[in-house]
Amino acid sequence: MNTNLKRLQKRIAEQSDYSRRKAEELIIEGKVSVNGKIIQELGYKVTDKDKIEIEGVALNTNEKKYFILNKPEKCVSTVSDDKGRKTVIDFIKTKAKVYPIGRLDYDTTGILLLTNDGDFANLLMHPSSNIEKVYSAKIDGIMTLADIKELKQGVVIDGYKTKECRVKVRKVNNKSNTSIIEIGINEGRNHQVKKMFKALGFNVLKLDRIRYGILTIENLKRGESKELSKKDVSRLYVLANNKGNRNGKEEKRFKAI
Length: 257
Fold this sequence. Notes:
257 residues, disordered C terminus, elongated, alpha+beta, four-stranded antiparallel beta sheet, 6 helices, nine-stranded mixed beta sheet
């Protein structure tokens, strides 16, 4: 059975600027063809290998796009927002219908990946991929060695204990009673980093994701994005398939305290 079968109007909406409703109108009006045949059936299903044309113009359903964005504050990690807020899609220059892989909070900055490749997105988001995400967190307080040890070993949030993680104190400001903590986690639960610090009595004042697997922001300014190279996409595939380990060995980018 072909698991890539999708309704024609959904495939058009995913790979073009047309909404699903508009795609349905085009189908009913006889303006859509599949492999040279006019299709006016809304329940008609296609694969990603079928050639779809709208009024004679081919819809490239096979072209996969992959982007990295340095997400700014005050934008949501969704394709659209009913409150009229900026979305991460506003910062991506492409006609392809991409969507974010996972999400960052409204006020969280840093690395976010976007794609129209569902298999790639599902692979990276699956818990078994074990890909490490590294964050720089500014917190309201100064952690003790006991706090750091507890954070590393896992804390209880929402009724479950988080996995072991990497922790490093980057900066301490005794005058303002704040700290910059670098933390690397292999999970991706909702508001996880903020909740982990909260469990120890610390509030996160600012959160920035600085690494995603083998990817860093490099020279991207806030709000800037670029298309990932084929090499980077391939390396992410390898990393995910190796369960977060490079060449079968755990990657160590910073020494945990």
